[in-house]
Amino acid sequence: MFRKHRYNLTGKKWLIIGDSITDQKHSPQTKKYHDYIKERTGCTVINYGLSGTGYTTEETFLERLMRTPLDVDYVTVFGGTNDFRLGKKPLGEFGDATNDTFYGALDIFLQALIQKYPTKQLSVITPLPRWRENEGEFNSRGETLDQYVEAIKETAALCGIPVKDMYREGGIYVKNPDFLSNFMPDGLHPNSKGHQYFHQKILSFIESL
């Protein structure tokens, strides 16, 4: 049960757009970070997470944004790992205005997000670290997840949207076997203990907005 302490999120509607880390239908037995936050704060979670998606993958976050409700208080976008791994579009460069690159698609999405929710508390969360020996450090284009994290941070900063860097600041040690076996057995998706482990960092970030 939540409560005793009152949070800024208490009684508020929190919309989350994301991938499998957020999607309740992906490993439905797993208790997700937003479940722990909901318990603690009493907020209403409006979950628009969909496994396998991102800013450039099918279905894109922009396509999903077209369907999200207006009656919300907080909007958080948590993704990017599928854009990196699937490599549907090249990374591109900071300042791209075309939908043909990740940088460009990201900028287009964030501008649309602001256009739809100009008076709401917006935020972006970077991808979590990931490690699978059969994948290695690079995607099919020779790009790293670190580059995608930087793209998200740079573009969100340009748009004035707060970012939580869970890639570097999440305390997630994906190359440590003990950490993986306890919190992220497949090297990508946290289990319930993993979500419990890092949910406080996201909660503190959202509360700081």
TrEMBL record:
Domain of life: Bacteria
Span of domain SGNH hydrolase-type esterase: 17-196
SUPFAM superfamilies: SGNH hydrolase
Leader sequence residues: none
CDD domains documented for this protein: SGNH_hydrolase
Pfam families in the cross-refs: Lipase_GDSL_2
Designated name of the protein: Lysophospholipase L1-like esterase
